[in-house]
Amino acid sequence: MFDHTTNPETVERQSPEVALRVRNLPPYLFGKINDLKYRKRREGIDVIDLGMGNPTDPPEPWVVEKLCEAARDARNHRYSVASGLFNLRREVAKKYEARFGVGLDPDHEVVTTIGSKEGFSHMCLALLGPGDTALVPAPSFPIHVHAVALASANVIALDVRDPQAFLANVARVCESLFPRPKILI
């Protein structure tokens, strides 16, 4: 038992048990490759990173100055709205209307995130649950399978390398599982 009178130095540390949905996640390819890269570098092996696009050169001086200006502005040290900046959501809605003819309410139907992995994961957690199925292209980005699995949903991989096989595969899966597939990625 830990309370405010307990000395944290004398309490045996116990790691919290990770949720089953996390323990059952498939290995994340980028994570495994990064782990291997850092392990090899610690062993003194020079590894050329062709991975995630992390820059190796410093930014141009004008970029650094703009970053410093932004850091000095107190308005940039606040949390934004959870659904993203309204002006950006409004512009996304306008673009959708112009490009696809689909009207979206930026207050209720558009969400922006700081990154595609985060946004994709949030979408899967919002739309999928246990027993749901997602049709996922194969090959695809590793986050696709990972985020669907995190939502405790099932993945059906659709081979997209051969266009004829892909169309037959989609038709077969949809016929055999309808109405189970909830999303097609």
Compile the SSE list and pairings.
Blueprint: H1 20-23, H2 29-42, H3 61-72, H4 86-100, H5 116-127, E1 133-138, H6 142-150, E2 154-159, H7 163-177, E3 181-184
Parallel strand pairs: 1-2, 1-3
Helix pairs in contact: 5-6
Number of helices, counting only DSSP H or I runs of 4 residues or more: 7
User: What percent of residues are in strands?
Assistant: 5-15%
Low-confidence stretches: none
Distance between the termini: 46 Å
Q: What is the β-strand count?
A: 3
Q: In terms of structural class, how would the helical and strand content be classed?
A: mainly alpha
**How much is the average pLDDT?**
84
Number of domains: 2
SSE order, as H and E? HHHHHEHEHE
Characterize the overall form: extended
- What's the alpha carbon Rg, rounded to whole Å? 23 Å
Overview of the structural elements:
- The chain is mainly alpha-helical.
- The chain has seven helices and three strands.
- A three-stranded parallel beta sheet has the order 2-1-3, with helices on both faces.
- Strand 1, helix 6 (142-150) and strand 2 (154-159) form a beta-alpha-beta unit.
- Helix 5 runs parallel beside helix 6 (142-150).
- The longest helix has 15 residues, at 86-100.
- The protein is extended, with a radius of gyration of 23 Å.
- The mean pLDDT is 84.
